[in-house]
Amino acid sequence: MATTAQVKKAVLAYSGGLDTSVILPWLRETYGCEVVAFVADLGQGPGELDGIVAKAKRSGASEVYVEDLREEFVTDYLWPMLKAHAIYEGKYLLGTSIARPLIAKKQVECARATGADAVAHGATGKGNDQVRFELTFMALAPDLQVLVPWRDPRWTLTSREAALEYAQERGIPVQQSKKSIYSRDRNLWHISHEGAELENPINEPRPDVFVLSTPVEKAPDKAEYVDLEFEAGVPVAVNGKRLGPVEVVEELNRLGGKHGVGQIDLVENRLVGIKSRGVYETPGGTILYAAHAALEALCLDRDTLHYKQGVALRYAELVYYGQWFTQLRESLDAFIDKTQEKVTGKVRLKLYKGQALYAGAESPFSLYSEDLASFVMGKSYNPRDATGFIHLFGLPMKVRGLMERKTKQASQGSAKRRKK
């Protein structure tokens, strides 16, 4: 761990939330160094970054940088993840995980620009984010010091209640209170909710937990259709209107949120070996994943689709584990991009009571043949060809069956001779 004398200036990934609000002055007090606040605008929501520059300076930041990363977040991180169809443990669309490498990358760039000799983050010693930040630092700036208050023996703010008291003592305004103390992470892709009564998995999320989406019970009783267009695996239009990358996600968040789409309650396996419970809202992402899967079903052959499904599991692990800046992830992207060359077309989904249901798809590169799929036998398919195929395909099973039958008969014959 770096000493006070070794660190002159540190760049802190600053969100203005409870943790980083108290970490900023703590770093100054403990290390005696300058602290630069780096704020990543990832689409946290209306008003969330209002006043953040003044707040950071009031908390002791020597400089504050706010960078709009929304388009880069979508095009360089969300779209590759969508094309890979990466989902962690069958449910989690990786909203927090995928943002961390980008924040850490830009934090390193800020450190270079300001002459800082250290970077800092507010992730706890129990979570995944500490790994995600620090693996990125290791990949992109192995020479920089990394300050981690939660793992520093001098850190005593080991509960959210203690952090609240620390902030109040120093006159630092925070949104959390002892009555509303959820740990939330929000960006353009999702919002996560952890802590408080959610720490006990027996407790159902209360309706007031949800921020981006309507509780399913209050969602409209009438379904709504949405049409999406993709080009080479990338969404480009919603309901016939071409939109920019950020606009696509924003519009689908609006539509999905209205119908309670994308609410996930998950007990997940953290990288550090702990099970944790999180409630996630990813309305637009859920719609996009459903539409993308429908289009791939039309455009990819069986072997490619099945192999890609295995790749998706590994890709999700790479994102979740913070291994974004690795040769493996870059190599998988090359494979995935090849699979997406013909994933172009239109998909219609029906949004209703928390679901994004398939309602039709078409593509100029569709491999679906109505003539072949029909129950009516046509010229393209001779059913007699199936006889030889089945015989050869099942030959290993037949050989094994004959062997087991012969062994059983021999055993029964031996048993009869012993009785005599």
Keyphrases for this structure?
Rossmann fold; globular; alpha/beta; 13 helices; 420 residues; disordered N terminus; 2 domains; Argininosuccinate synthetase, chain A, domain 2
Distance between the termini: 83 Å
The name of the CATH topology of the largest domain is Rossmann fold
Cα shape: globular
The run of helices and strands is EHEHEHHEHEHEEEEEHEEHHHEEHHH
CATH superfamily of the largest domain: HUPs
Give the helix level as a range of percent.
Answer: 40-55%
> Which strand-content bin applies to the residues?
15-25%
CATH classification, class level of the largest domain: Alpha Beta
Strand order of the largest sheet: 3-2-1-4-5
The DSSP helix count reads 13
- Return the CATH architecture of the largest domain: 3-Layer(aba) Sandwich
What's the number of structural domains? 2
Radius of gyration of CA atoms, rounded to a whole number: 27 Å
Low-confidence stretches: 1-5
Question: What is the strand tally?
Answer: 14
Arithmetic mean pLDDT: 93
> How can the largest sheet be summarized?
5 strands, parallel
Structural class computed from helices and strand pairing: alpha/beta
Set down the secondary structure blueprint.
Blueprint: E1 9-13, H1 18-31, E2 34-41, H2 52-58, E3 63-68, H3 70-84, H4 95-114, E4 118-120, H5 129-140, E5 145-147, H6 160-169, E6 183-186, E7 191-194, E8 224-231, E9 234-238, E10 241-242, H7 245-258, E11 263-269, E12 275-281, H8 283-299, H9 302-320, H10 327-339, E13 345-352, E14 355-362, H11 370-373, H12 385-393, H13 395-419
Parallel strand pairs: 1-2, 1-4, 2-3, 4-5
Antiparallel strand pairs: 6-7, 7-12, 8-9, 8-13, 9-10, 11-12, 13-14
Helix pairs in contact: 1-6, 4-5, 7-8, 9-10
